[in-house]
Specification:
Blueprint: H1 4-7, E1 14-27, E2 30-41, H2 42-54, H3 59-87, H4 91-95, E3 107-109, H5 111-118, H6 123-139, E4 142-143, H7 146-159, H8 165-174, H9 184-197, H10 201-212, E5 217-219, E6 228-229, E7 232-235, H11 242-248
Parallel strand pairs: 3-4, 3-5, 5-7
Antiparallel strand pairs: 1-2, 6-7
Helix pairs in contact: 2-3, 3-8, 5-6, 5-7, 7-8, 9-10
Length: about 250
């Protein structure tokens, strides 16, 4: 089991650690442990020892906690994806779209895409928005921020005040995408983007958030398609489909 990429970006020579991992099964309030051997790069093992000491735990329990967190996130993502796809499923839409090959680059999704996915007033845009939404769920490449979730819920509640449960369910499921929180670094980058590209501050924060998590594309209707904003390529959900990004990569 290679944990190099999860624990540290650099790797040199290898080191061997005998560790104990918690099995996620409890009997009578007692945790059962199993011995496994993990191969780590030397600098990764050094980082693990320092991190374990900082958290006043053993290396084995530190690695076990990291794996448990990843397992729970994976299981939670799968459940959220099944709910999300079932909620807005359309056989007509599913039958008319097949990507040639999966995307590999993360895509930051702006608020308007999620709004159009719910909007029955414009069927063409709704179908296009749902294609993107579903493909990004399946490929695990969708990225958002809490700014997007907040804007989506506020606008959806104003547009459809009688049916707030649906946007609330959408927000709950999209938490599985691990939304970015706007911190001081994103705020500073947002100001720079705003000044450089003459964007509204809200749009600049979106670009800054996308940049902070390594996105290659920004999916939005609000900005000019194909322009490069601080290394982020703007993609219109209504002028391109997911297959077009697959071809470009």
């Amino acid at each position: 089991m290679d944990l190099t990429n999860r624990l540290h970006p650099r790797h040199k020579s290898r080191d061997m650690l005998d560790t104990k991992f918690v099995l996620h099964k409890h009997r009578a309030m007692k945790t059962k442990l199993r011995n496994v051997t993990v191969t780590l790069e030397e600098d990764v093992a050094r980082w693990a020892r320092i991190e374990a000491a900082r958290n006043e735990t053993s290396v084995s329990r530190l690695l076990g906690a990291i794996l448990k967190e990843r397992m729970l996130h994976h299981d939670g993502y799968e459940r959220a994806m099944r709910r999300a796809l079932a909620r807005l499923f359309s056989r007509r839409r599913a039958d008319t779209f097949r990507a040639r090959r999966p995307m590999t680059a993360p895509v930051f999704v702006d608020t308007n895409v999620f709004l159009y996915a719910l909007d029955r007033a414009d069927l063409k845009k709704q179908i296009a928005a749902r294609k993107w939404r579903d493909e990004l769920w399946k490929n695990r490449l969708g990225r958002i921020s809490f700014q997007v979730l907040q804007e989506f819920y506020v606008k959806a509640s104003q547009k459809w005040p009688e049916s707030r449960d649906e946007p609330r369910a959408e927000v709950r499921d999209l938490l599985a995408w691990r939304p970015v929180t706007e911190d001081a670094a994103i705020l500073e980058r947002g100001w720079k983007v705003q000044d450089r590209y003459h964007l509204s501050f809200g749009d600049a924060l979106i670009v800054a958030a996308a940049k902070s998590i390594g996105c290659r594309y920004l999916l939005t209707e609000d900005l000019q398609a194909d322009q490069n904003l601080d290394g982020i390529i703007v993609v219109s959900p209504f002028l391109a489909d997911p297959a077009s990004l697959s071809r470009d990569e």
